[in-house]
Amino acid sequence: MPHLLERAPTGRAKCRGCSRAIAAGDWRFGERLPNPYADGDGAEMTHWYHPVCAAFKRPEPIVELLKATTDPVEDRDLLLRHAEPGLLHRRLPRVDVVSRAPSGRAACRHCRELIEKGRWRLALVFYEDGRFAPSGYIHLTCARAYLETVDIIERITRFSTELTDADTAEIEQELR
Length: 176
Known about the structure:
globular; about 25% strand; first zn-finger domain of poly(adp-ribose) polymerase-1; alpha+beta
């Protein structure tokens, strides 16, 4: 069964990308995957996302859906604009949240140096077996080398909802 883009009939589903509820009547993207827990061939399950979260974290399936459908899709250009960098830069969909290091014990996955206490760090996740698994952190200054781009502010602010405007400006400065 192909992936889905539909209006949420209820507000019970949570987005797998940001973990927030998908409100009733809002658009949601459903990624169809084989169900490893069901008996029989062809058993599938659906993982729900806000369309923008899917564009950031699961670019392949949403681009596949957008290219396969001729139906009008609200914000098609925006979704493609957010998804296409994730197709070009293989590590970009790993970007999760940005936070200050609570201790100086975590090592950067790129340079292997410790991330100092109080310094901004970017959390990474791997998508495996239908789940996002935490996979460590990188310095913001290592983002260009690790991710092959520093155009990540929209991703960061999407998943790090507690950031202030001053925090965002400081993060942008450190990324440059």
